[in-house]
Design brief:
The protein is an alpha/beta fold and 295 residues long. It has two domains: 86 residues, no CATH class; 185 residues, no CATH class. 47% of the residues lie in helices and 16% in strands. The protein contains eleven helices and nine strands. The strands form two sheets. A seven-stranded mixed β-sheet has the order 1-9-8-2-5-3-4, with helices on both faces. The chain has a two-stranded antiparallel sheet with strand order 6-7. α2 crosses α4 and α9 packs parallel to α10. It is globular and about 55 Å long.
């Protein structure tokens, strides 16, 4: 009987990063709060420009994330630069920090959602990480429309606690993590609207769906909720316009499938690519069999 191979010990660098993670998170939180306090002293246009500048600066230091972003951007024929994507992330951070001043810029048309809710059978609201998705929920709450979000498990650390507190302060209603699927089914059966993202590889049950010509693992939660509850499906999106307004729109899809949802996400991302999250490893473990398709 051959002996078991010895387990490979983590490198010194990895162990050091793990040991210093709490301190680094605390320092990042302190720096963030100082930056937010400084932003609130500035006129809005200057604060948003400062956020964009901070984003570009972060990209220079986050080399691993920038490398992933650059690798993902090859799926576009005419991609924005990583610097432009980082600038948009920084601007979004500034907009979140100044939410009370930015929310009046949101142009929300919830007519399709109100009509679907009036049917009384619940509404699955599929959405994506385009534009300021964090403030989209707050804008809907401000418009008097309650949409319950399926939340990911909270991460430890003061940064994530601050983000969760900001969501609560802005009126965003999140279903409890851990039992999110059961809570979503219950909410839909009571005629509520439940929102969830369909544009990330999360490790949940799903299947590969073409996205920018490559097979991408896509969670099938939306399809399962529809099958279990008979709810309506709407797709919601938001994006920032050149004049600074943020559009929030709802639309039905001809077919309630992951393929249709993913195709709609792709069309929106192609229109405003810098406003999507290219930091996410959307095509994880699929690079070796990525099938580029003609557009």
């Amino acid at each position: 009987m051959s002996p078991e191979p010895a387990r490979r010990r983590p490198s010194v660098r990895r162990r050091l990063r793990a040991a210093t993670r709490p301190a680094r998170h605390t320092l990042a939180y302190v720096a963030l709060r100082a930056f937010v306090a400084a932003l609130r002293l500035l006129p809005l246009h200057a604060a948003l420009a400062a956020g964009a500048g901070l984003g570009r600066l972060a990209g220079l230091f986050a080399r691993r994330d920038t490398a992933l972003m650059r690798a993902n951007l090859v799926h576009l024929e005419a991609p924005p630069t990583p610097g432009a994507c980082w600038a948009d992330l920084g601007r979004r951070l500034a907009e979140l920090a100044l939410a009370d001043r930015v929310l009046p810029r949101f142009d929300v048309d919830a007519t399709p959602l109100r009509a679907a809710l009036a049917e009384g059978r619940g509404v699955v609201v599929a959405t994506c990480h385009l534009g300021h998705w964090e403030l989209m929920g707050a804008a809907l709450a401000r418009a008097g429309v309650e949409v319950r979000a399926v939340a990911a498990r909270p991460r430890p650390g003061p940064l994530h606690r601050w983000l969760a507190a900001e969501r609560r302060r802005l009126g965003v209603v999140a279903l409890p993590p851990g039992g999110g699927a059961r809570a979503a089914v219950a909410a839909l059966r009571h005629g509520a609207a439940v929102a969830l993202f369909v544009d990330q590889s999360t490790g949940e049950r799903g299947r590969d769906v073409p996205f920018f010509g490559c097979e991408a693992p896509t969670p099938a939660t939306a399809e399962r909720l529809l099958a279990l509850t008979g709810a309506r499906l709407l797709f919601a999106w938001t994006r920032r316009e050149p004049d600074g307004r943020h559009l929030v729109r709802f639309e039905p899809l001809p077919t309630p499938t992951l393929e249709a949802l993913t195709a709609r996400v792709e069309a929106l991302v192609r229109r405003d690519p810098a406003q999507w999250v290219w930091l996410h490893d959307r095509w994880r473990a699929r690079a070796h069999r990525c099938r580029r398709r003609a557009h």
